[in-house]
Amino acid sequence: VVFDLYREAKTGETPIVNAETVKKTGLDSTKSWILVKSGLTTDANGIIDTSDSANITNYTHGLANGDYYLVETKTVKGYNLLTKPVEVKLDVTATTTWQKTNVYDASGNLVKHGTVTKTTFTHTSNNGDATKTELAVAKVVNRKGFTLPVTGGFGTLLFSGIGVLLVLAGVGVLFSLKKKPNRA
């Protein structure tokens, strides 16, 4: 499954998504939008891993906290595309623990004041629960769908032709009955 990631343009930013794309994707047309990343692809488990810089397709760095929207652009056979964007709230707080270690150069100048020993990321999920994790997780439910039958094919023309012939036959019978004299 492939998604595009959008966010609302902030004051002073130039929106880069045109009105036609906004309408097609189902985003709110009263707002201005920026396409953050296109082509985010899920793996075999249905997960979009954006943390691996070796995975050039999905790697997304420097996302600020805020509201983002995933728009499904391609889906797996047997499923239908989502009808509207999925909102993902990103609210991550980083807490860094460090150890004070003063390091001086040969001239006595302080060159290093401390060493980071641990960084903890706390993500507040969409339902308000704070969890300590390195990942922000948003679950997208996509159910199996069905394909509608094709309309306007040859079968439609065939049945329309039969219908026209039946109407003409009915009109012919009416006219033939009308011309016969009454024998009463």
Would you mind describing this structure in some detail?
The chain is α+β, with helices and mostly antiparallel strands. It has one domain. It is 18% helix and 33% strand. The protein is built from 2 helices and 7 strands; from the N terminus they run E-H-E-E-E-E-E-E-H. Strand 5 and strand 6 form a beta hairpin. The longest helix is centred in the last third of the chain and has 26 residues. The protein is rod-shaped, with a radius of gyration of 32 Å. The model has no long low-confidence stretch (mean pLDDT 78).
Query: Which strand order spans the largest sheet, edge to edge or round the barrel?
Result: 2-1-3-4
Q: Sketch the major β-sheet.
A: 4 strands, antiparallel
Structural Rg: 32 Å
Report helical residue fraction: 10-25%
Counted beta strands? 7
Based on the model shown, name its key terms.
2 helices, 184 residues, rod-shaped, three-stranded antiparallel beta sheet, four-stranded antiparallel beta sheet, alpha+beta
TL;DR?
With 184 residues, the protein is an alpha+beta fold.
